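thread from #wetlab-drylab

HS: before we spend reagent money on co-crystallization trials with adenosine-5'-triphosphate, can we at least see a predicted complex? here's what I'd submit
DV: go for it
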Amino acid sequence: MNDIAIQVSNITMKYRLASEKVDSLKHFIIKKFKKEMKYEDFYALKNVSFSVNKGEMFGIVGMNGAGKSTMLKIIAGVQKPTQGTVERKGMIAPLIELGAGFNGELTGMENIMLNGLLLGYSKKFIKEKLDEIVEFAELGKFIHTPLKNYSSGMKARLGFSIATVVKPEILIVDEVLSVGDFKFKEKSEQKINAMTANGTTVLFVSHSLGQVESICDRVLWLEQGCVKEIGPSKEIISKFKNS
Ligand SMILES: Nc1ncnc2c1ncn2[C@@H]1O[C@H](COP(=O)(O)OP(=O)(O)OP(=O)(O)O)[C@@H](O)[C@H]1O
C-alpha cells in the first residue's frame, strides 16, 4: 500500500435498535430488567470497501442517514466497527465533532489550549502556535470571550484553525466548512489545497455538492450504508444529483 493512505476493507457497522414501543421510562426499565425488550439489528454500514490515495481529496456523499459520519468515525478510530478493518498511513487530524471538545464557559483562547491538548499537541507546541491559530480564525476580540457567545460559524473557524495548524498526513473535514462564511470558506479551501499539494490526504464529507465537485478528485457515494458508486467527482455528483 505504497501510494495508499487509507484502506477500508469490508466495514460493517451494526446497531441494536429497540423495536418495541414503550410509553414510559418506568415501563422501559421494567421490560429491560425482565429482559423482555425486543431489539432488531440495524446496519449503518454494510460491507463497505474502498481505498484513498496519498495526497488525494476524497469526498463522501449520500442522503441523511446514509452512513457518512459513521464511516468517518470508524476511519478516525473513534468508533469500532462490527466487522472489517481500516488501515491508515500516518497521523490523522479529525475535525469531526471538534465542537465536542469545546467548553462553552471557557474563552476561545482557553479552548485552544484544551482542544490542542485533546488532539495530542504538547503545551509548548500550542503556545508556539497560538498566534497562528488566532490569526487564521480571525475572531478579533472574541478570542477572549466565552465560547457560549460564539455563532456556529465562529466555533467552526476556531476548530478548523486548531486542527490544521499541524501538517497531518490525513485530514478529515466535514460540515464545518459549510458553516463558515464565503471568505472563510475560500481561505480554508486554499489551506486545504496547499496541504494536499504537500501530500496530505483529505477526506471531505458534505451536502454542498458544488463544493465537493470543485475540490474533490474522487467521490464515494453511500446509499443506505452501502457503496453505490466510487469515481471521478464530476461523474458521481452528477449521477447522485439525478438519482
Ligand atoms: N449510536 C447509534 N445507534 C443507533 N443508530 C445509529 C447510531 N449512530 C448512527 N446511527 C444510525 O446510523 C445511520 C447512519 O448515520 P450517520 O450519522 O452515519 O449518517 P450520515 O450519512 O452522516 O447522515 P447526515 O447526512 O444526516 O449527517 C442513521 O440511520 C443513524 O440513525
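DV: DSSP finds nine helices and nine strands in the chain.
HS: ok that's useful, forwarding to the group
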